[in-house]
Amino acid sequence: MNSTWKRWVLENTLKGVSGKELYLTLIKHGFVHEQIVPLLGANLSAQQTQQLANKYRVSVPLPAFLGDDKSDDSHCSNIRTSETVDYETFGDSDFCVYKLTGGFDSDLCEAAVSSIKKGLRPSTITTVSSDKPQQYRTSSTCDFASLEAGLAERLSDKLKSLMGKVHDTSEPIQAQHYDIDQEFKQHTDYFEPGSSEYSKFAGRRGQRSWTCMVYLNTVERGGDTEFLHLKKRFSPKQGDVLVWCNVDKNGIVNPKSLHQAHPVEAGEKYVITQWCRLPATK
């Protein structure tokens, strides 16, 4: 929580605004129980804290391919097998990325590429900055609705088999195409709590939790996805899937999920991405 919001809490506490009212306002703007309670301290009674926790505390579900594994992921870089798929873990207890090698078969990937080519438009970003969108994110995008009906269902079914109940609150699949020199500079996938971006894109739909990204083709050179905290780059290979969580187990956004798509140097790059959401608070 940034200093502006902390100052807002202090100013409104001094004005006599109740702890519960402050709590509910912060929840509405995307902050979570574990952030708010320590900040409000004695302004919430033990009974109020418990009642609010019962209603608003966030539980971040795991994707289906992880099964019932809730262990610490600091053992990274081990290849592990669940009931559905082999996966490899890269990271530490603060943040990790799961790689599912060959998670999608080549026929499905190639069919997706063929369909995506027919519906591309310039990619956009959700935040406004001094950089023009086309300089920050220079790829092209194809929306799920533009894909052929049967293909869209096959892609959705495959993603649901990997993600399980996490998929139930997901956004529509989005496809991206990167030509030579095209990239997506350093960014996070979550919506910043307390911002206009959060109010516009997550206020009614909930915060982004998991990201699932599928490489649809093998890139000749370049186009790596890099996670800055991990100092790890993944080269695009057809059928490989990357999955990561943009929030911690309590639903607090994780800046260590910062990543970027490096420019394609030779060939082209096709990916599909699905962002899953936490349920919106009411």
Automatic annotation (TrEMBL):
<protein>
    <recommendedName>
        <fullName>Fe2OG dioxygenase domain-containing protein</fullName>
    </recommendedName>
</protein>
<keyword id="KW-0847">Vitamin C</keyword>
<dbReference type="InterPro" id="IPR044862">
    <property type="entry name" value="Pro_4_hyd_alph_FE2OG_OXY"/>
</dbReference>
<dbReference type="GO" id="GO:0031418">
    <property type="term" value="F:L-ascorbic acid binding"/>
</dbReference>
<dbReference type="GO" id="GO:0005506">
    <property type="term" value="F:iron ion binding"/>
</dbReference>
<dbReference type="GO" id="GO:0051213">
    <property type="term" value="F:dioxygenase activity"/>
</dbReference>
<keyword id="KW-0223">Dioxygenase</keyword>
<dbReference type="InterPro" id="IPR006620">
    <property type="entry name" value="Pro_4_hyd_alph"/>
</dbReference>
<dbReference type="InterPro" id="IPR045054">
    <property type="entry name" value="P4HA-like"/>
</dbReference>
<dbReference type="GO" id="GO:0016705">
    <property type="term" value="F:oxidoreductase activity, acting on paired donors, with incorporation or reduction of molecular oxygen"/>
</dbReference>
<dbReference type="InterPro" id="IPR005123">
    <property type="entry name" value="Oxoglu/Fe-dep_dioxygenase_dom"/>
</dbReference>
<keyword id="KW-0408">Iron</keyword>
<keyword id="KW-0479">Metal-binding</keyword>
<keyword id="KW-0560">Oxidoreductase</keyword>
<feature type="domain" description="Fe2OG dioxygenase">
    <location>
        <begin position="169"/>
        <end position="278"/>
    </location>
</feature>
<dbReference type="Pfam" id="PF13640">
    <property type="entry name" value="2OG-FeII_Oxy_3"/>
</dbReference>
